[in-house]
Amino acid sequence: MSESIGICKICKRDVKKDEAVKCVICGSVMHRRCIDEEILTDSVGDYLCPYCAAISALDWFDSVITQFPGAFSKDEKEELIARLKSYLNILEKPR
Which residue from 25, 36, 44, 50 has the least number of CB within 10 angstroms? Predict the structure, then answer.
């Protein structure tokens, strides 16, 4: 039987060595079964925890917005703002 190597970043339960993956950025451990590989891997297939994946996405978003600010129509800007506000609402809800 494998020993616990930490608490899963996603489900908050013990993770055994034989069922673990680690975030390539921060080293957080997660159960392989808890992750969605399409969402929580980077472009080369390394695992990311939800926080590091979100920060990486925001860094990319920041690059697009700051390099191409004139590329968005008024309606597109309003849609982006509405989506950002909905993300804030999700994050602010107690879990």
Answer: 44
- pLDDT tens-place string over residues 7-49: 999 999 999 999 999 999 999 999 999 998 889 999 899 999 9
Q: What is the secondary structure of 15-60 as a DSSP string?
A: EEGGGEEE-TTT--EEEGGG--TTTSB-TTS-B--HHHHHHHHHHH
Distance CA 95, CA 75 (A): 33
Q: Strand, helix or coil at 64?
A: helix
Which tokens sit at 88?
A: 């804030």
Distance CA 4, CA 17 (A): 6
pTM of the model: 0.84
